[in-house]
Specification:
The structure holds two protein chains of two kinds. By secondary structure, chain A is mostly beta strands. Helices cover 0% and strands 45% of the residues of chain A. Chain A contains no helices and nine strands. In chain A, strands 1, 3, 4, 7, 8 and 9 form a six-stranded mixed β-sheet that branches. Chain A has a three-stranded antiparallel β-sheet with strand order 2-6-5, with no helix packed on it. In chain A, a hairpin with a 2-residue loop joins β5 and β6. Chain B has no helices and eleven strands. In chain B, strands 2, 4, 5, 6, 9, 10 and 11 form a seven-stranded mixed β-sheet that branches. Chain B has a four-stranded antiparallel β-sheet with strand order 1-3-8-7, with no helix packed on it. Chain B is 0% helix and 50% strand. Chain B is globular. By secondary structure, chain B is mainly beta. Chain B starts with a strand and ends with a strand. The chains are: A mainly beta, B mainly beta. The interface between A and B is medium-sized, with 26 and 27 residues.
Chain lengths: 108, 123
């Protein structure tokens, strides 16, 4: 089955840009979605179809997808961005949704 | 406003059963596929199962295939997850999530999520 690989943690200084990678074989042939998960809250979709933002998500959030890596970028990082972030794709070969292992973003 | 409200979580014995429900409101329920996703303590998100807007056959993660059964009642705007042969590793918060499309997951994504219900499997 398809595997998505994320680093367990990423740190960013306030005001700087955080980049969270999501690796997968020929992932650029798939649509990648990103979710934010904070403790005690429902997951929130922050990027869909590689680089589209749902309404209500700040422009600071953006996505890209090339080759074997998709990336979530968060510019002008702030304390409120601290959360776990998960990438997701649909694996049509197995008819299953696949999540990456998640990346904990720390703003310090 | 889209709302997804899970219920039915609680404590179950290993080998036991539990049925989760997810009540949906604020959107045309049968126009969207829906999925169950779980998060075990200290672990990441794991997709569990999904079902198309029209109902019919559900599709499952390998970890629950043969033990869990997902269904929906479009007349009641409600989603169900019947869990059997429960194991300690099924302990998790279970979320229901609304997909963008009704009948295809290609290009779809999880637009909205519920708050989750906690399932604990322990003797």
């Amino acid at each position: 089955s398809y595997v998505l690989t994320q680093p367990s943690s990423v740190s960013v200084a306030p005001g700087q840009t955080a980049a969270i990678p999501c690796g997968g074989h020929n992932i650029d042939r798939k649509s990648v979605h990103w979710y934010q998960l904070r403790p005690g809250r429902a997951p929130v979709l922050v990027i869909y179809n590689d680089n589209d933002r749902p309404s209500g998500i700040p422009e600071r959030f953006s996505g890209s997808n090339s080759g074997n890596t998709a990336t979530l970028a968060i510019s002008r990082g702030e304390a409120g961005d601290e959360a776990d972030y998960y990438c997701q794709v649909w694996d049509s070969s197995s008819d299953q949704w696949v999540f990456g292992g998640g990346t904990k973003l720390t703003v310090l | 406003e889209v709302q997804l409200l899970e219920s039915g979580g609680g404590l179950a014995q290993p080998g036991g059963s539990l049925r989760l429900s997810c009540a949906a409101s604020g959107f045309n329920f049968n126009s969207h596929a829906v999925s169950w996703v779980r998060q075990a303590p200290g672990k990441g998100l794991e997709w569990v199962s999904g079902i198309r807007g029209s109902g019919g056959s559900a599709y499952y993660a390998d970890s629950v295939k043969g033990r869990f059964t997902m269904s929906r009642d479009n007349s009641k705007n409600t989603l169900y997850l019947q869990m059997a042969s429960l194991r300690a590793e099924d302990t998790a918060i279970y979320y229901c999530a609304k997909e963008y499309y009704a009948e295809s997951s290609e290009g779809s994504f999880f637009q909205n999520w519920g708050q989750g219900t906690l399932v604990t499997v322990s003797s």
